[in-house]
Amino acid sequence: MSQQLARRKRLKLESDSGWGYAFIAIALIAFSLFTAYPVINAFIISLQEYRPLGSTFIGLENFTNSFTDDLFWKALKNTLVYTILSVPVNILLSFVIAILIIPFKKRTQTIFKAIYYLPAVASGVALAVVWLWIFDPLKSGIANQVVGFFGISNQNWLGSSATAMFSLVLMSWLSSHGTAIIIYLAALLGIDNSYYEAAEIDGATFLQKLWYIVVPFLKPTTLFLLVTGIIGSFQVFQNAYLMTGGGPDHATTMVGLLIFNNAFTYFEFGQAAAQSLILATIIACISFLQFKFLGNDVEY
Amino acid sequence: MYNNSLRSRGYLFGRNGIIITCLIVFAIATIFPIYFMVISSFGDPVEAGAMSYSIFPSKISFESYKFFFNFSPHSWDWLLNSFIVAACITVSNVIFATLAGYAFSKMKFKGRNVLFAILLGSMMIPGQVTQVPLYILIVNIFELQNTYTALIMPSIVTVYNIFLVKQFMSSIPGEIIEAAKIEGCSQPKIFWHIIMPLSKTVMAVLAILTFMAAWNDFFWPFLVTNTMEMQTIQVGLKNFRFANTTYFAPMMAGATISAVPMFILFFSLQRYFLEGVTVGAVKG
Fold this sequence. Notes:
The complex is a heterodimer.
Chain A: H1 2-14, H2 17-46, E1 48-49, E2 56-57, H3 61-68, H4 70-101, H5 106-121, H6 124-134, H7 142-149, H8 164-175, H9 178-189, H10 193-201, H11 206-217, H12 219-234, H13 238-244, H14 255-264, H15 269-294
Antiparallel strand pairs in A: 1-2
Helix pairs in contact in A: 2-15, 3-15, 4-8, 4-9, 4-12, 5-9, 6-13, 12-15, 14-15
Chain B: H1 9-40, H2 63-70, H3 75-106, H4 112-122, H5 127-141, H6 148-152, H7 159-169, H8 174-182, H9 187-198, H10 200-216, H11 219-224, H12 233-243, H13 248-268, H14 270-279
Helix pairs in contact in B: 1-13, 2-13, 3-7, 3-10, 3-12, 7-10, 10-13, 10-14, 12-13
């Protein structure tokens, strides 16, 4: 009798079924409606020639069209170039800055953290509008004044296909490192001082400490920043859309922008869905490879 | 990491001087665009050909702000719309993400781990995949174009926020909840009287990050609104830019208007912002 009572009591303690489902109900409904259903629908649409009144099934045509489309390959190449130029430099910059901030008092650290984080707070549209003027092709433009100071002639920053991509990358270098710096600082503060002390007793130099203590300790952080950075960079859309519109001559058309144009300029929903699924597959593969080759001793 | 003990004071002074110079140079490069934006917004609303850029303000005038607000009779509505949308999204996320995060972290029910794994996995899916079907769902099926519902509903509670709360909740000891249950406390009461007071920090962080994301969001409001009176400030700013490509100072005034509310929020609640960045990143 008492055993049975104890069991019932334990069961009651262990299961919160009713309330559990009630607590997640809204989240689940929102998720099914606004994430799960659209994802499933994306697969269906990608196999169709989409029309609001009755779509026709066309099999894999949207996919084969994408793979034979030169513009799609160019967009992929542009995305890759943008990612390779922006993500590693941003991570390296953030790492160096975090190392430089560490020796100072907490108050000084906070001031610098706040300054570096500020562009992340400003709206993307506002930043795009400002940078558009910084890249003004006239001689009086800020970017031209800066390079003019070093004796470089006027550049048509966003207007020429030679410099347009670099201009977008430059903007990313100077406005998207705030988060990474703060994350690196948090990780740096987590390294116990005794490691440095032990190394100092053995006569390690600053660079040796950096290489043998800090870099291995921050490896999980670096991997996290690399994976999230590449995922984000592959989806980049807004700056290209607002600043160059993908031009000149598609020099800055990235996959995110191409999908947007297919969907909302040409209303080729099927084509856009197919390309978005290709993009998702590429991102999944890259993330998987990164974890496999870089993350074998990192636990998540 | 830095060796401070065995060196002379002069050496330390010199070293810190060099470091701080590097930091300041990079800091200037980082905030220059924002400084440039604010300073230039005080210029006169003349066409760009007639003016030259200057890094220091020669005078302070609010004519460009007037110009921006006179651009459309709905300029003030943009700010109001942004505020309404961001506030609604923030409130609903705080409520529903905290509830769901608590349930996933501390409650026991069938399918909990499977459901959470599905949610977590969905964070890997790029936005581009859902953007077209979501647009079709909201605009063609529900016919909600140009409504607050369309602006708010898809972001009513995000998986990222649920994840954030769950991470935080795992630091709350389960014994407190067990003890309350033995005392006969029901789950809603536990949530209200025990969990909520303990989770104020994560709720504040979540509220701030959500509000900022919603305020700064451009893409979704741009897709689902098609009249000036329903647009948010970010979409309005984009309209202004494409309509007045040569009016430099008013454009900077518009950009300043769209960004300044977040700056004020940031400087008054800096601690939560900076905390919020690391909460999601540090593994748990």
